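Risk mitigation, structural track. In case the binding assays with 2-phosphoglycolic acid fail to produce interpretable data, a predicted complex structure has been prepared as a fallback.
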Amino acid sequence: MQKLVVGNWKMYLTANQARSLAQICAAQLNDLCRENDIKLVLCPSAEAINGVVQAIADADALAVGAQDCASEQSGAFTGQVAAASLKEIGCAYVIIGHSELRVRGAESDDQLEKKLQQALAAELTPIFCIGETLQEKKADQTNHVIKEQLAPLKKAMASFKSLKKAYIAYEPVWAIGSGLVPDAPTIENVCAQLDQELQGYSDRVRYLYGGSVDADAARWLWQVPHLAGLLVGKASTDFQLLKKIVGYKQ
Ligand code: PGA
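Fallback model:
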């Protein structure tokens, strides 16, 4: 089964830097991705998407994703980007519910569901992020939190019978940018819970892990049976690290 490596470039790169890195990825990683049966999804910030789409135009193992989309189709929503626009300019994927947006209180469950609806209607493949905070982990609340966070995805999928594919990225908030990565059994436990919660969608939903993925972590993360890929933040902005992460998949 083809695996996914999603590079969430956050706001690390300017539009020119993003285009340059995408050009290097297209020239030097396309063959490696093909050999390892990986789709490499680059997710630059919104203003950089056009340049990245052009840069990877001839690289069939690469694709472009957005870091967010609007919860509405169109209208008076200053600063928002519509899912349909993202599709129009060449995105195939969109990250929804990233904790860096969730924690700022910017997204209610209702908004997340609408964002998912917009993404699905525009035929973008959603990468839906879930994961507990350190406080929730310490209080042994992980399973409860994950169950609650899945609600918008379940609702959106129930109303989209024609849904082809969605990815769920398990990204513990305490692991993002911290250098900490949960061990394999912890990730497997969460995946087993996802299997339970999402019965009936198992053929269309795949799981990613994200949070401090670097080259060392990628070595063993590729061996975790439930995972269909990795969501990589900071390390994906460093070409050599990204090459190792892609290269370690056997
Ligand atoms: P990180 O970020 O790899 O820099 O920890 C991951 C993410 O937030 O998607």
